[in-house]
Amino acid sequence: MADRLEPGYLVLNRYDDEFGEYHRFVEPDRCRLFYLTVPDGLGVLDTESAWETVVVDDLEYDTVLPVARRLAEQYGDFDGIVGLSEYDLLTAARLRAALGAPGWTPDFVLAFRDKVRMKHAVESAGIAVPRYLELDDTVTAERVAAGVGLPVILKPRSGAASSGVVRAEDTASLQRALDTVDRADYECEEFVAGDIFHVDGIRRDGKFHLVTASGYVNTCLEFAEGKPLGSVLLDPGPLRDGIVGFTAECLDALALDDGPFHLEVMRRDSGELVFLEVGLRPGGAEVAFIHRDLYGIDLMGEAFRATLGLPPLTQADQFGEHKAGGWALMPEPRPLPSRVTAVRPVLDRIPEVYEEIVPRAGDVFDGSGGYGHVGGRFRLRGDDESAVRAAVLRIMDEYGLDAEPVLPEPERTTT
């Protein structure tokens, strides 16, 4: 076993972009980094400063556990284990439990992964949540309609990015949906009409280290169905203050003292705020980039260090005053699969757009792009919330993307 000179951290990596540059978040010469990465993520890692990098087929628990055990036996117990992706949070927690490493337990992480658990914890603190129902094989559409109401949202208990989410308008469509999913992995919840907001930031010692509140333009579910999606940072004022205060109550109920969060909240037409869900991670889409560009904070780096119990990269008083900004995403072109034939950018026409990432002619979309490989990504800054919102709507109206269906290859015949 090697001499134990500096703390050792095991990192689960699935990123293939700057989010995987973990060496930027620490002083590599003052700790020992060990990487378990999927093949696509290898190129972004600083393998030269790592003590060991192991490429694995996937980051499932059963795949990484024997490798992590071997590393611990060879180099000594880990002082921390990190998986920043939504899909690696629970695996990292299970590894901590199996290897005796400090940090969030599986039970703690499940409160941020399981939508039934998280709503129960928040509701138990007296905070408004949608009516919801845990599913099993005995639950019928009629029972859901009676207990939750219609329309209703059927969603995976531990999903992300609206993948697998279904809105059912009546009992017939709900029953069809129930018959096509594994009910043990799903829950039903009330469809809440109103505006949706997301709150992003880092908590330290039970207080906000940084917090921002944003309003969606359209919804994540609509984006999954093919509509554009946008987000605009809220100006300071009563609405923002109320949403931030509500978020603090929710995070207190979930006992998050130190760590990142991405929380979604609905405001009913009556003005009541309702908790929707929360992730124990920075927000997706362009959230991390907007915070880096406008506020100078690296949410991924702060999440990495908070997970390990290390001090923040940036002190709270360095963030300065509120900045107006936002982002927009254009969906993958329909029908799927499609091939891009032409793009008409807006960077030079809409002054609030400072970054535009668009596909090239020939790029193919098959519906698996998530929030990254999409029809267009835009980052904005402006004078205030109103100006940015208007610019987001202009992008949705003026950006052009032409595509053609990708036809299946004709079957080859032999004679």
UniProtKB/TrEMBL annotation:
Reply yes or no: does the keyword ATP-binding apply: yes
Question: At the top level of its lineage, which domain of life is listed?
Answer: Bacteria
Domain ATP-grasp residue range list? 119-308
UniProt keyword list: ATP-binding, Ligase, Nucleotide-binding
Q: What is this protein called?
A: ATP-grasp domain-containing protein
Natural source organism: Streptomyces cinnabarinus
